[in-house]
Amino acid sequence: MMSKLLLICFLFFLSCSHLLLSSSFSFSNSTKICPHGQALALLHLKKSFSIKNIYSDYFEFNHLPSYPKTEHWKEGSDCCSWDGVSCDLVTGHVIELDLSCSWLSGTIHSNSTLFRFPHLQRLNLAFNDFSGSSVSAGFGRFSSLTHLNLSESGFSGLISPEISHLSNLVPLDLSWNDDTKFARDGFDSLVQNLTKLQKLHLGGISISSVFPNSLLNRSSLISLDLSLCGLHGRFPDNDIHLPKLELLDLMDNYNLGGNFPRFSENNSLIHLDLLSTNFSGELPASISNLKSLQILLLFDCQFSGSIPASLENLTQITSLNFCYNHFSGKIPNVFYNLRNLISLDLSRNNFSGRIPPSIGNLTNLYELDFSDIQLEGAIPSHVNGFSSLSSVRLGYNLFNGTIPSWLYTLPSLVELDLSHNKFTGHIGEFQFDSLETIDLRMNELHGSIPTSIFELVNLSSLKLFSNNLSGVLETSKFEKLINLTYLDLSNNVLSLTMSVHSNSMLPNIAFVDLSNNNISGIWTWNMGKYTLYHLNLSNNSVSGFEMQPWKSMQILDLHSNLLQGPLPTPLNSTYFFSVSHNKLSGEISPLICKASSMEILDLSYNNLSGMLPHCLGNFSKGLSVLNLRRNQFHGIIPQTFLNGNSIRTLDFNSNQLEGLVPRSLIICKELEVLDLGNNKINGTFPHWLGALPKLQVLVLRSNRFHGHIGFSKIKSPFMSLRIIDLAHNDFEGDLPEMYLRSLKATMNIDEGNMTREYMGDAYYQDSTVVTIKGLETKFVKILNTFTTIDFSSNNFQGEIPECIGNLNSLRGLNLSHNYLIGHIPLSFKNLKMLESLDLSSNKLSGRIPQELTSLTFLEVLNLSQNHLIGFIPQGSQFQTFGNDSYYGNPGLCGFPLSNRCTTDEIPYPSQEIEAKFESGFDWKITLMVWMWTSNWAFSWLSHFRKWKT
Questions:
Q1: In the chain, pLDDT over 70 holds for what percent of residues?
Q2: What CA–CA distance (Å, rounded) separates 348 from 344?
Q3: What is the pLDDT of residues 723-777, one digit of tens each?
Q4: Burial (Cβ within 10 Å: 0-12, 13-18, ≥19) of residue 949
Q5: pLDDT the model gives residue 752
Q6: Helix, strand, or coil here: 360?
Q7: Close Cβ partners of 932 (under 8 Å, ≥ 6 residues apart)
Q8: For residues 756-771, b (16+ Cβ closer than 10 Å) or e, as one string?
Q9: How many CA within 13 A on the CB side of residue 74?
């Protein structure tokens, strides 16, 4: 009986003790226990901050509760009952402060009253704005602290070494405080001293260290986040024995490498993130040890090899991302058991083969991305379910055949991307209206656009360009697509019928590209009055516009249509405006100069006339391209340009402009292309253009320039020039040797180690017309390795400078129709890239250098109408040139001319030949024998031809 009574008393004591202990963490208590000094310290802390909700969007998106907790702190009330404050009921000491998500804004100074709570055990200040604060030594004085969370609160600067004195910490979270870093050896000290850590989150903190091996011996660790910490070196290769570890996040440590971490079978890992690191090698078969793994993120690493079949043992996996690696081989058929998969991304790898059939068993799949991995064949025609599938991305592969029917019947599908494949057949009818994005561009689909697409009320983006779609689109069909913002149907065979009631359709449309179709007539579809910023109707047969109601237009591309009448005036907001290759007429209105945002203005190939507005050179500081080629403008070139302008291309070719080249062009420091060809511009050579550092293309052909080109006071003029055309003018005197020596852009181009690019930008690329290989050729794009010089049809005199031989990357050289004398320079043998050489119609004399046979790229040679003599070199490209290359040189002999060479016309040896015969062998005897043989062969061939006839 006594024993039972003692047992009852003992249990009662335990109950009371438990009640007392648990009540010490209560936020409200009827007994006022808060010491007056602590209340004053808390109120002072409150006053040191203002209230600003800078994380409102984040809180709302992540459904986090947030409110200003300190607003309810009132003097005279018990501080232990205040929001975020917990006290020990026995002593009254504040032992917990949870002010996370409290909208606090201000600086925590080293003398802050925050540090007057020596009994604090838990401190959470996450998601506030303490900009200008550092993790100071004060935090290291909380000797009883077991929980510390300062994440995402704007701390910066050095983390005090005293933080490593908090040896009782179980979780420590300092993550995502920008510009925060550990002092030297501070991180190592923290790892060494905080032996009780279960959670260590330092994401975004600069550690700049190798990965500490000692962390892999902390058996208590449950969660380790060292993402974006500047870790470098190699991750340890030894087995990881952390049985409780559930999260390992090393993402965005770009210089941290190693093999895939090896975990023992006794592990609890749920989340492994190696995104954007330098981990490499093959995935080991032991990956099957991670039986609890749910999230595996290997995005943007250096892994290679095939995916191991043991992946099928990761039966708990929900998210698998291998994007941007170097995996190869076939995708293993391992997905039968991975029924929990929600997200599967294998994109941007080097796989081959087909989609494995087991993919069809992933009934819980929400996102599938197999884009750009070189898969081929047909997509499986049958799947089991996919009722939750929201996103399918299979673009940039080699899939063929028709699009399987199940892709049209997915009830939850939001995004469908099958772009850049080889699908054929018709587009089927979609059964559900959940779709928001359809991308079927760059395939071989044909037929009409299915009616069901126009019923997709949630559709925001439709890309069907570059197929063989045909038929007539009625604008009234777009009535239900009120959410559509992006429409690209370009490069098809579609025509359009515009309804009189279509103006109110597509109220939110922002981007429309209908270029390269069969659209004709007057454009009356004025959709997106306030939202449309990009409209491309180029390469159609549009003849005019009823009106242009758009208020936000930035890109308007109408080139290659049948537009007539006066030039439409672009909006102030427009920065790209192209109406080239139309039939527009009349003058340019000065109102065009109100388009102050203009960057690219292309009015070329029209019938525009009149004088150019004086403001045309300075109406927009951002103007990059002004193209007026092939019109009928007259008068002078605009004389003023803005300081600090962005002009890259000025093309006034083929007009009737006159006067001088404006000296104000000297301030156009970004100028790369200046084309003034085929006008009536006069004056001497504008030598001051040599100071433009980026000028690459200079075309002055067919004008009225005159005089000596002479010398320049500029030390190294025209350093970037690689296309220069001065043909058909009245320049005279010697060829400009100083300028020719300065053309560094035509020397030593290493095409093997440079990226072949075209001049211009992504949307507009420069073009020019040059005479090369005897033909006027339009380069619709100018390759950055193309080089040519054309000084033809002038009055140049004197000898050809030897320094031209230094321009060893030159593709074309035309000095024809001048009065040049002397020999063909031996240095021409160095022009190894030369494709076209025209020295015709001059007064050149002497022999053709045998060394020119080393120019193996030479396709066109014209030496006609000179005074050249002797034997025509044989071998290599010279075997391909006909009589036209040499006519008008009566002193030449040998193939292909009918004039046979005599002994006296045997060519003198080059230095190379002389070197080969230093032993005393008579080179004349050798060449005489060769000549005799050649003449005998020529005679025999002539008799043979006569015999045949």
A1: 91
A2: 13
A3: 999 999 999 999 999 999 999 999 988 877 777 788 877 677 777 777 766 677 7
A4: exposed
A5: 73
A6: helix
A7: none
A8: eeebbeeebbbbbbbb
A9: 4
Locus of tokens 């019923």: 455
Half-sphere exposure of 593 (CA within 13 A, CB side): 13
Residue 389's nearest CA partner among 342, 347, 354, 357 is 342
Q: Residues 276-314, buried b or exposed e (16+ Cβ, 10 A)?
A: bbbbbeebeeebbbbeebbbbbbbbbebbeebbebbbbb
And the tokens for 139?
């935090």
Q: Detail the DSSP E strand segments found in 334-390.
A: 343-345, 350-352, 367-369, 376-377
* Residue entry with tokens 């007009």: 655
- Residue 148: band (very low, low, confident or very high) from pLDDT cuts 50, 70, 90: very high
Residue 909 backbone phi and psi in degrees, to 5: -75, 150
Q: What is the mean pLDDT of residues 305-320?
A: 96
- Flag whether pLDDT at 647 surpasses 60: yes
Name residues whose C-beta falls within 8 Å of residue 37's C-beta, 6 or more positions apart in sequence: 116
Alpha-carbon distance values, 406 to 380, 412, 451, 658 (Å): 9, 12, 18, 67
Cα 359 versus chain centre, distance: 32
Closest by CA position to 273, among listed 312, 246, 304: 246
C-alpha angle 624-627-632 in degrees, rounded to nearest 5: 150
- Amino acid at the residue 288: S
Mean pLDDT to the nearest integer, 883-902:
92
What phi and psi, each to the nearest 5 degrees, are found at residue 862? Answer: -135, 105
Residue 942 pLDDT greater than 80, yes or no: no
- Residues 6+ away with beta carbon under 8 Å from 763: 555, 576, 600
Q: How far apart are CA 702 and CA 680, in angstroms?
A: 8
What is the per-residue pLDDT across 896-914, written as a single tens digit (0 to 9) for each?
Answer: 998 888 865 555 554 444 4
Confidence (pLDDT) at 6: 35
**Residue bearing the bigger pLDDT, 137 or 54:** 137
Phi-psi sector, 539: left (phi>0), alpha (psi -120 to 50), beta: left
Averaged pLDDT, 206-216: 89
Maximal CA-CA distance, the chain: 145
The tokens describing 702, both together, are 């067919």
Position of tokens 């003023």? 640
What does the block give as tokens for 763? 């949307």
Single out the residue of 571, 563, 603, 570 nearest to residue 587, CA to CA: 603
CB-based contact 15:23 (threshold 8 Å) = no
- Phi and psi dihedrals of 3, rounded to 5? -65, -40
Q: Cis (ω within 30 of 0) for the bond into 308? A: no
H-assigned helices in 48-136: 56-61
Q: What is the pLDDT of residue 502?
A: 63
Residue 841 pLDDT: 97
Q: How far is residue 365's CA from residue 340's CA, in Å, rounded to a whole number?
A: 8
Q: pLDDT confidence of 178, banded at 50, 70, 90?
A: confident
**Per-residue pLDDT at 851 exceeds 80:** yes
Calculate mean pLDDT across residues 54-70.
83
What does the alpha-carbon distance between residue 855 and residue 876 come to, in Å, rounded to a whole number? 8
- Mean pLDDT over all residues of the chain? 89
**What does DSSP say about strands 775-779 and 768-772: parallel, antiparallel, or unpaired?**
antiparallel
Encoding tokens for residue 70? 């300190």
Mean pLDDT over residues 270-286, rounded? 97
Q: Which of 137, 148, 136 is nearest to 173 (CA)?
A: 148
**In whole angstroms, what is the distance from residue 851 CA to residue 911 CA?**
10
